[in-house]
Design a protein that fits this description.
This protein is of the alpha/beta class. It is built from eleven helices and five strands. The radius of gyration is 17 Å and the shape is globular.
């Protein structure tokens, strides 16, 4: 069994300790380190090479969004690159979306159950797009779909570089479907889907599936209510 290595970044000691106890109780997950702020999170990620970083949004010295950006910008594109899972509360919607745009793989509310926490870590470690439940997709719909948002003609021109099938795959990624689910939807092999996703990322200059999903909403390829 492959063990998922996790780094916890939160300025609240009780949160770090609580999550450590919950995650270490899982047979396939281990907490390899903790960080008290974003700067230490970046440093410890480089030092420990965790599979997943649980990142709080509001921390001293360096916030979670900028820390996420620095970590994701250091990725090489390999399967071993660290994934970032943002920890937040309901009143931080804007920050959550910015974290997703910065390269986070999804987010989790701090009051999540032990099972939800462990499942979220596993989903992110597998390199899946956005996290269930659907709250993540609702956030993207809310902020990426705004009329005066960061989308526009320049981004839509990049979509034109995709083939019809690649555009179709991108839209399904944005809906939160896994490679296996997309394969079932399009009646093709899962490896074929993986190839299409890789080509989409290269053509659009995106780092991962999460940024591809955000891009799809920003350009209007996927719109609120059309999931």
């Amino acid at each position: 069994m492959t063990t998922i290595r996790v780094l916890l970044a939160d300025d609240q000691k009780m949160v770090r300790q609580g999550f450590t106890v919950l995650l270490d109780a899982e047979p396939d997950i281990t907490v390899v380190g903790q960080a008290v702020d974003g700067l230490e999170a970046v440093e410890r990620t480089a030092e420990l090479a965790p599979d997943v970083v649980l990142m709080d949004v509001r921390m001293p010295r360096l916030g979670g969004i900028e820390a996420t950006r620095r970590i994701t910008e250091s990725r090489t594109g390999g399967a071993a690159d660290p994934k970032v899972l943002v920890l937040t509360t309901f009143d931080l919607d804007e920050y959550v979306f910015e974290a997703l745009r910065a390269g986070a793989s999804g987010f989790l509310l701090k009051d999540a159950s032990a099972a939800e926490l462990a499942d979220a870590v596993r989903v992110v470690a597998r390199g899946e797009a956005l996290l269930a439940p659907n709250l993540t997709k609702l956030l993207i719909e809310k902020f990426a779909g705004m009329p005066d948002g960061p989308g526009g003609g320049r981004l839509k021109e990049r979509v034109a570089d995709l083939t019809e099938r690649e555009t179709e795959v991108l839209a399904l990624v944005a809906r939160g479907l896994s490679n296996l689910e997309i394969a079932g939807e399009l009646v093709v092999a899962e490896q074929t889907v993986k190839t299409h996703v890789s080509r989409v990322l290269v053509k659009l200059g995106l780092r991962d599936r999460t940024q591809a999903a955000v891009f799809a909403y920003e350009t209007g390829l996927v719109r609120p209510g059309r999931l």
